[in-house]
Amino acid sequence: MKLHNSYTNQIEEFKTIEDNKVKMYVCGPTVYDNAHLGHARCYITWDILYRYLKFRGFDVTYCRNVTDVDDKILKKAEKEGKTPEEVSKYWYQRFSESMKALNNLKPDIEPFATKTLGEMISIVKDLIAKGYAYEAGGDVYFRVKKFSQYGYLSKQPIDQLESGARIEVGEQKEDPLDFALWKKDEKFGYKSPWGVGRPGWHIECSAMSRKYLGKTIDIHAGGADLIFPHHENEIAQSECANGCKFVNYWMHNGFVTINKEKMSKSLGNFLTIDDLLKLYDANTIRFFILTNHYRMPVEFSDEALKAAANGVKRMLNAKQTPVDETIDITKFDEYKEFVEALDEDLNTSKALAVLFDLTNKANKDVNYAFTLLFKLASVLGFTFEKAKLSEEELAERLKTVSAELGETFTSMEEIIERRKQARAEKDWAAADKIRVALDNVGIVLKDSKEGTTCELK
């Protein structure tokens, strides 16, 4: 199995620290707002890696943190007149629901920053004792120039970094490049040897990774936007505190772009996962993301998602037979091709091609094809179950349809009956308007001899 290592910028043979065990850390969300399509891309990508490593027989411990103490959370709390805990708890719950809706597996460990403060303080104390960090007026900073490998991950020479570095008002840094390990904060802070304050963002991941996975781990993953400064700073503080290599394989997924710009909250061009799931199901979103290699940017468009929806439909409409648990799937060529594709730095587009080959064979009654398709598709996180709406979600969509049609509907049966009536009266315009209104909220009507049914896109 080969993986791309961002640190060396090479595709390398994957070798674990402990025989057959994988310690994997992924930078999780800062919980202050809705998760968007960019987050979906990140966490679906690492969900695939997690699933595939387990499928290949590795004993994986997957840790994904939750940042629940941060400037953005504090600003949101102040704006809404809530405590930071109320804000982070609410948005963590929403994030968890979004991840479940996308059919992402829960990590084995999901630590919260605020529950790991003791470990953060311990690392900061070690760094000060070793001369890598210093206290200044209640803040603690890391001495970047004391770590000779700084800039290696992001491929940025120290002199290049220096030219853009500035000391902000109120900061008491020795050098503009130095970054905060601990920040003075008497309003929202916690007790520490340097006074009341809170951790810098970077130290959180170093502490949680060390506490739950150890000083050296196999894989550390996240979005490409985290390479600098977050992951660069993690390496510096972890290796200086621990006196050993921090991560063997750094992995980063590419951006989701809209009109060639990175999707992000700061640019205001993001689509939330919740909004997207009103239009497309989890299989479609996953398919859209996996069509492209995880390291490449993905350009979002309705056309691309519609194409993905058609691809998913083709796969899920394969002629189904009972899944035969007695079949040894490893003896088939399609299995080998699938494994070869994912062993090649998670080449998901090649793996999807294998699933389509199996779809065609299932439709031609090849006896093993559907069992193999079902099992391999699940490695990529696809589900053959029809997506269902909760009562609240259905009520919300019915409200939207009612507003568009100027009539009040409280159930799908009422809408189907109203369309049936319009068609009986040969009012084709009204019937079509109902179909379009439903299509706009991700519900498709299907007419047959037995009557009309509906399903999610």
Salient structural properties:
single chain, 457 residues, alpha/beta, Rossmann fold, Four Helix Bundle (Hemerythrin (Met), subunit A), four-stranded parallel sheet, four-stranded antiparallel sheet, 45% helix
Question: How is this structure best described in words?
Answer:
The protein has 457 residues and is α/β, with parallel strands linked by helices. The chain has three domains: 2-256, HUPs (Rossmann fold); 302-379, Anticodon-binding domain of a subclass of class I aminoacyl-tRNA synthetases (Four Helix Bundle (Hemerythrin (Met), subunit A), Up-down Bundle); 391-456, no CATH class. 45% of the residues lie in helices and 15% in strands. It has helices at 37-55, 71-80, 84-101, 117-129, 158-164, 201-213, 227-242, 273-277, 282-290, 302-316, 333-343, 348-363, 369-379, 391-405, 412-424, 428-440, and strands at residues 2-5, 10-13, 21-26, 59-64, 133-136, 139-142, 179-184, 197-199, 217-223, 247-253, 256-258, 261-262, 298-299, 443-448, 451-456. The protein has a four-stranded parallel beta sheet with strand order 4-3-9-10, sandwiched between helices. Strands 5-6-7-8 form a four-stranded antiparallel beta sheet. A three-stranded mixed beta sheet has the order 12-11-13, with helices on one face. The two termini are 35 Å apart. The mean pLDDT is 93.
